[in-house]
Amino acid sequence: MDIKIIPSSLNGSVTVPPSKSAAHRALICAALSGGECRVTPYCTSKDIKATVSCLKNLGMNIQENSQGYIISKGSTQKGATLNFGESGSTARFLLPVAAALGANCVCTGEGRLPERPMNTLTTLLREHGVAVSQDNLPIALNGTMSGGEFSLPGNISSQFISGLLMAAPILESDVNIIPTTALESVGYIDMTISAMKKYGVNVEETVNGWFVSKESGYTPQDTVIEGDWSQAAFFMSAAAIGGDIKIAGLDFASNQGDMAALDVFAAFGANISLENNVLHISKGNLKGITVNAANIPDMVPAIAATAAFAEGKTVIHSAERLRIKESDRIKTTLAALNAMGVKTEEKEDGMVIYGGKPNGAVIDGANDHRIVMAFSVAAAYANGESTIKGIEAVEKSYPEFFEDFKKIGGKPI
């Protein structure tokens, strides 16, 4: 599906959807607790639907309604097929969980997910007693993962560590997780540890990493999922470029790495304040900045769209993991900017953007939800109409995006 964007100023109020990152973790911890839990609100994104579907196929008892999820004790279903969809989080969290349960399952994926590297996990699973058919999806798992020591790089994806942490309390022996390199996206590991603590599991930080005792176990707990800072970044971009927007539903004590959006958009020159727990952001005199994206890779499209309107040069670096997202997000971000007449330079780990006044253009969404959302915002302020191709990609994380875009004055037709 394609959509045309008529230029307009974006102003008003919006409430962000529940955090996809927090929802994955809460649902998995609740499902492993062995008791009745309520997780609210209901999440409409494809990624969360993939996690719920996989948990059900593993034998977890999950009832869904318009308010959220009621999760109660189930029993492991062996021989299931787990379709992770296009969700890297679902895959990296549930591969070790399924192995810890001894589910003897087949794991599949869609889109670019089968191309994304899983060998960090598959190597560890083999070392801990699981027969693994291959290193990329589809993967067949047989056997039950043992505890012990898990050593892995910390600079590839924090999701590998989070998956092992969530699996640890259901193993029969102690677990030590030891990163062998410096950590990236450490905020998301903190999110995992916080979610596990809420469900009764103590993750002990050690000199070398983390320790989870074999005596640990999940206990039932109800959870209200916080708002999503990574989605808020698109509306922060919309306000910074030329609008005035109030954003509700955010937790200002969050562990989400993308809460760094506050610092990034302030550095650009946007006006930011907090009013009765609502974020208020408005247009500023935007100047180019330098951004280390190692811990905030998902924010890069929104940052790049903002940089296109900022005076001077913006440098985004340490973003090499964007090469293996739903698209090669460095190339697809630059392609969108170039289509709008913005001068850029491609770097192996990021990009350089020379701001100005982007023109309306035909922009390929590249089957990437964050490209579609970021450049719908940019299109609202462009010189002339734009067409965004493949807008259905927003179903992955934010199906209501264009409804909220309209609420603040966006004109998609």
What strand order characterises the main sheet? 22-23-1-24
CATH superfamily of the largest domain: Enolpyruvate transferase domain
- CATH architectural type of the largest domain: Alpha-beta prism
Q: What's the oligomerization state?
A: single chain
Mean pLDDT: 95
Structure overview:
The structure is a single chain. The chain is α/β, with parallel strands linked by helices and 413 residues long. It folds into 2 domains: 202 residues, UDP-n-acetylglucosamine1-carboxyvinyl-transferase, Chain (Alpha-beta prism), CATH 3.65.10.10; 205 residues, Enolpyruvate transferase domain (UDP-n-acetylglucosamine1-carboxyvinyl-transferase, Chain, Alpha-beta prism), CATH 3.65.10. Helix content is 31%, strand content 23%. It is built from 12 helices and 24 strands. Strands 22-23-1-24 form a 4-stranded mixed beta sheet. A 4-stranded mixed beta sheet has the order 2-15-17-16, covered by helices on one side. A 4-stranded mixed beta sheet has the order 4-5-3-14, with helices on one face. α1 packs parallel to α2 and α1 runs parallel beside α6. The chain is globular and about 60 Å long. The N and C termini lie close together (12 Å). The model has no long low-confidence stretch (mean pLDDT 95).
